[in-house]
Amino acid sequence: MHKGNAIKGEYMRYHKVPDETVKRLPLYLRYLQSIARDGRNNVKSSEFADSLGINPPQVRKDLSFFGGFGTPGVGYNVKKLLHQLRNILKLKKTNKTALVGAGDLGSVFFDYSGFSQLGFEIVAAFDKDPIKIGTVKNGVTVEDISKLKTLKRRGVRLAIVAVPAGAAQETVDRLVEAGVVGILNLAPSYISVPKKIRVISIDIALDLARLPYYLPLASGK
Amino acid sequence: MHKGNAIKGEYMRYHKVPDETVKRLPLYLRYLQSIARDGRNNVKSSEFADSLGINPPQVRKDLSFFGGFGTPGVGYNVKKLLHQLRNILKLKKTNKTALVGAGDLGSVFFDYSGFSQLGFEIVAAFDKDPIKIGTVKNGVTVEDISKLKTLKRRGVRLAIVAVPAGAAQETVDRLVEAGVVGILNLAPSYISVPKKIRVISIDIALDLARLPYYLPLASGK
DNA sequence: GGTTGTGAACCACTTCACAGCC
DNA sequence: GGCTGTGAAGTGGTTCACAACC
Predict the structure, then answer these.
(1) Whole-model pTM over 0.85
(2) Which letter, b or e, does each residue of A80-90 get, where b requires 16 or more Cβ atoms within 10 Å of its Cβ?
């Protein structure tokens, strides 16, 4: 029991799954979707590896955390693995997602094929700017931020935060209060949340900022 | 010699600096900028830690890779550390950056304060859509993608790629040919480049996709 | 007393090598 | 023969504990 073996849905989870493995699963899923569209039925770890820049044993180990999905000497069945990955990642049914902040950056996500392909749908949007409130984008009406509290009733448990840095912590606090349990934060600020809540932050400027470090010194000039 | 000790600019680099440390340096820099605006002169590792969600020894170890910037019993001098970090990260002079893909996502970056605060400036933009070519955003004229090759002459060595997934590899190949050595890739695709070139990829849908994995199963209903 | 800087211990993840299976 | 699954070895990064210093 304390070893962590357990049946979860249709797959087994042995011990603890490394976070890094979880990061790669969506990558595998997307690759499978693309080769499924090409009509492929079977795939081996070395193909994942070549296409995604990962080592073959890494792919096999990642998948084996959830049970043996492959066939020795053959590879993995594309349809079956797709099904399993969507199951593991809880992407089987559409994940209703709220968007907070309908500015330049936030608006990108109203109609973002990367999201819909993986089963996410923006079903609500909020902003505090009166000019934006009431406008409709891709079928979603921008609401006043005070309406956040309706999210629980509407069954929305995920949110994307695209507000200015100064408003991020407050926004997240309100989302948590509204029953949101998973947050994708695009604001450049550290967010503190209760243990039960999961925050994934993307900080574009921060990633850009470490690029020069690796570069050779500018030549001549 | 083989131990890697070397004088680099004004700071020393002992052995190899972990990639994870380099990722945190811009975080430290941004925090320093914010407390410098508040007029603070001194800061200790535990303050970084509290504000950024990092352990104090981690902060000290990160900084110590580049030499002793602090004073035992006192902390770090804000101005001096700011200077050192900007130096280490090669952010002393403005980094001229090209933007490829002037669609919804790319356009966000024409006037992105997160970039300018850290010393980046978008000085050129490219797209293949004839309708966008010739338009001016924030003082930058969108050029045809065939003009990429002028970047070397213009002294641009960094680029942000915000094109559709299918066009990403080709775009990057052309950028490399044009002398760009550091790339921030926002397209959801694996990019292969020569060893000398540095690519940092941000894949927003991929990050969103692992959020449901961590969530408790939906209650009731 | 307070805080830095750092070797050493610890931990997590990756890679390897090969047994097992088709 | 070919490819998966996995214990074991290797690697990289974090945390600890404390000596050194102000």
Answers:
(1) yes
(2) ebbebbbebbb
